[in-house]
Amino acid sequence: MTQRILSLLFAIIGWFSVITQYYLMVKNSQISFTETTVRFFSYFTILTNLIVAIYFTLQTFNGLPKTKKPGTLTAITIYILIVGLVYQIILRSTWNPTGLQRLIDELLHTIIPALVLIYWCLYENKNHLTYRQIPSWAIYPLLYLFCILIRGYFSDFYPYPFVNVFDLGYLKVLISCFWILVLFVVLSMLFIRIGKSLSR
Description:
Layout: H1 2-28, H2 33-40, H3 44-60, H4 65-68, H5 72-91, H6 99-123, H7 134-137, H8 139-155, H9 165-199
């Protein structure tokens, strides 16, 4: 019962954050509605928080078999922690939001990652985590990177400064992405290691 209540609470927070961010982006946009919407869904932060919101919604209503599969929650936790870490380390200093935007910014990049981590500690089936799962977990971020680079080539829009090929060139972008991939692998191995230790 407690797990379902937490899932519902986290789902509400997740949907509120994503929907409100979309409202704010459309409200303040200087470009067309269609392009604004496409750009909105070009952010790893938005896509990952959307995954989180969907996951907790499914958990609230007993979920689907795949959402209960060991490793699913771990992968989502790693994704959202990367959102938080990259923001805190690289992006936080690039702008200073105020008002409602500040609240949503903190929810998307700080509070929700912390909530997901807590949920992982409480409810992930940690003794079934294996290192063989890491390649499958990497599909989503690698596919995301491929898509934004392809779209950026045709649109000249890159959602993050460290993947802006127009300003940095492909070499620097690939180096930045390599280090983020290293962070992903290290986090994945760390979570599996911690999970195995806790399951004992």
